[in-house]
Amino acid sequence: MMSLILTNIENRVGTIVLNRPEKRNALSAQLIADLTYAFELFNNDDSVKLILLKSASLPFCAGADLAYLTELRNFTFEENVEDSTKLKNLFELIYTSPKITVSQVEGPALAGGCGLATLTDFCFASIEATFGYTEAKIGFLPALVMVYLKEKVGMATMTDWLLTGRVFDADEALNKGLIFQLSNGDSIEHDVKQFIDKLLVGVSSQSVAGIKYMLRNMPSTRQDALKFAAEMNAMARSSDDCKRGIDAFLNKEKLSW
Length: 257
Fold this sequence. Notes:
By secondary structure, this protein is of the alpha/beta class. The chain folds into two domains: 5-201, Alpha-Beta Complex (2-enoyl-CoA Hydratase, Chain A, domain 1); 204-250. 49% of the residues lie in helices and 16% in strands. It is built from eleven helices and nine strands. Helix 9 packs antiparallel against helix 10 (222-237). It is globular, with a radius of gyration of 19 Å.
């Protein structure tokens, strides 16, 4: 079966493009499998420093495919757990990626599509973009994305968005902390590229991986967190990037990563 995404690696950027325009880039079992494969590949590729997720056409992603939802109605509980686990695995690959992840949202990002935008480190959105965790409107639960969303926005905002299932605009998404930057429709490509270019030369890949690991795995108690931090600090000191960074600092040299 033909892949529902396009992938490319150029200048240390692994780009994943949702390419299912006839279905509004809706999530199907095949699209989830294709995305999983792409993120696994890029997460483990040393030539990739940053992963960009975008769509070939509007919308960004309209949620679950209707045919897919129809099929799920006839699944047993065990089959539904197995299927839900595949989406969970994709979400974890994005959220725990050792690379910087950026999403470029143009047009609607709804339900599971909004989940994809939620999971990236930095979400850029066009002024025309809209967002919504609309699962409650069809008797479903935004169960998986809820786990990640609570780390990004406050409980009051999450309660509003999830219980009402309403669609909200990019301004609200920016003000509530869901997205990183709002761009004019014509400038979003430029804004994303400018941001990516600065990160590619400005920060160490080993530092990024270590910081993201700590962000995702920080223990809840202060003493446990400090012990974990001390161990990570010690590990970082012996890394090649840290040694290179210290040498450059001592020699007053400007680094380009």
